[in-house]
Amino acid sequence: MSDDFSIDDMDRAIVEQLRLNGRATNQQIANVLGLTAATVSARIRRMEDANKLRVVAVSDFSAHGYNVLMEVAIEVDGRPASDVAAELAGYPEVFAAHLVTGRYDIDMLVVLREFDDLPGLLLEKFSKVRGIRSMVPAIAVDVIKYKFDVAPIEARGDL
User: Fold this and answer.
1) Phi, psi (degrees; rounded to nearest 5) at 31
2) DSSP state, 40?
3) Residue 60, pLDDT score
4) 23: left (phi over 0), alpha (psi -120 to 50) or beta
5) Is 44 found in the same domain as 77?
6) 77 with 34, same domain?
7) 23 and 44 both lie in a single domain
8) What is the percent of the chain with per-residue pLDDT over 90, rounded to a whole number?
9) Sorting pLDDT into bands at 50, 70 and 90, what band is 34?
């Protein structure tokens, strides 16, 4: 796809409808926007092909019995941080792992079913990963925002 691909107002309207209801059919979106389902389908496919849009499902961790959300900042020593992050990302409790700049090398978001699972995770699992110098867990006491539509479709036409 060419680099001059641009998103127009109709594309942004389609994306907004998908954000409001990720399960909306092309026909439902078309009805709201005054288009045909074929037009909606073609525009979605065009944005996907240009890597401007990806439709994904996001699951609510609390709906699956995970009651503890925790951020863990990790300092690495003696091993590449990317290797440590890749190993940690293999644990099912880790739902996001990032290499970061600053005091720490890795930042992770972790979910647990209950607080009683915390010692086992930190002391029996994570502490066995070679290269971890320190871990600083921070338990979320309240979730203020939990959204994954973080890549705005900007009015400029380029992303």
Assistant:
1) -60, -40
2) H
3) 64
4) alpha
5) no
6) no
7) yes
8) 57
9) very high
For residue 29, what pLDDT is reported? 93
pTM over 0.70: no
Give the pLDDT confidence score for residue 135 in this predicted structure: 95
- Per residue in 52-87, pLDDT (tens digit) is 887 766 556 666 677 888 999 999 999 999 999 999
Classify residue 158: in a domain, yes or no.
no
State the Cα–Cα distance between residues 92 and 146, nearest whole angstrom.
Answer: 20
Written in H, E and C, the secondary structure of the chain is: CCCCCCCCHHHHHHHHHHHHCCCCCHHHHHHHHCCCHHHHHHHHHHHHHCCCCCCCCCCCHHHHCCCEEEEEEEEECCCCHHHHHHHHHCCCCEEEEEECCCCCCEEEEEEECCHHHHHHHHHHHHHHCCCEEEEEEEECCCCCCCCCCCCCCCCCCCC
CB atoms within 10 A of CB 76: 21
Structural domain including 129 reads: 61-139
Check which CATH number belongs to the domain holding 45 and give it. Answer: 1.10.10.10
